[in-house]
Amino acid sequence: MKEMEYDRELARLIDHTLLKTDAKKADFDRACAEARKYHFRSVCVFSGDVEYVAAKLRGSDVIPIAVVGFPHGQMTPVAKAFEAHDAIVRRGAQEIDMVINVSALKSKHYILVLDDIRQVVRACEEKPVKVIIETALLNTYEKVCACCLAKTAGARFIKTSTGKEEGGATVEDVRLMREVVGDEVLIKASGGIKSREFAYALIAAGANRIGTSQSVAIVTGKAARGGY
Fold it and tell me: Is 104 helix (H, G, I), strand (E, B) or coil?
């Protein structure tokens, strides 16, 4: 039998994402099966779904990731920290993708933003935290501030987007983020990534991880359809 052809190197950098409000059990089963088949880095889902996904991925090289404060990020730091801790300690999540409080950032309430991230980082008991800064809603100065605050708070990654706002990852934003955080913080590009060429352009700009629901199409070279 001919060995399945796909981009194995790229697959290990992909967080296979399923963040549809109306997703059914069959959708999670399919996402986990795809992740195991193509050896994606992870499956990324809502915190309420991560326990089921963690069980489906057990024994594989794919990790479960939970999003926290998703998609708007404007709940209290205590609420976010509780959600993150529950996902890690009780539900089996191995990484957390949290949404920054964009409103607080744009209001220059930097102490709140810093505390928000720091509480989640502490709640995760040394598991990696990615801070989603929602670049499409920020100007350049705000992007720089968000990156600096996430780095100061101890985040392992800074992530471009939720994929829920109009506008997602761009090469320019990833390049800016890399310039701000240097090599000390990793970068996840997400939102609107639907081709292998774009994924590699983002990686060349400084991205360490790619978040997309179009993972299979990207690594096999097939045409992608709508989605995150």
Answer: helix
DSSP state of 135: G
Query: Could you confirm whether 80 is annotated as catalytic?
Result: no
pLDDT score for 2: 46
Taking the C-alpha atoms of 209, 154, 51 and 187 in order, what is their torsion angle to the nearest 10 degrees?
A: -10
Distance between CA atoms of 210 and 203, rounded to whole angstroms?
8
> Tokens 């708007």 map to which residue?
72
**pTM for this model (two decimals):** 0.95
Active-site residue (options: 15, 86, 97, 115): 97
Q: Are 150 and 158 in contact (CB under 8 A)?
A: yes
Of residues 80, 127, 143, 188, which has the active-site annotation?
Answer: 188
Active-site residue (options: 80, 143, 159, 194): 159
Judge whether 97 counts as a catalytic residue: yes
Annotation marks residue 127 as catalytic: no
| pLDDT tens figures, 168-198 | 999 999 999 999 999 999 999 999 999 999 9
For residues 173 and 135, the answer to whether their CB atoms sit within 8 Å is yes
Q: Per 3-state DSSP, what percentage of the chain is helix, strand, and coil (rounded to 5)? A: 45, 15, 40
pLDDT > 50? residue 216: yes
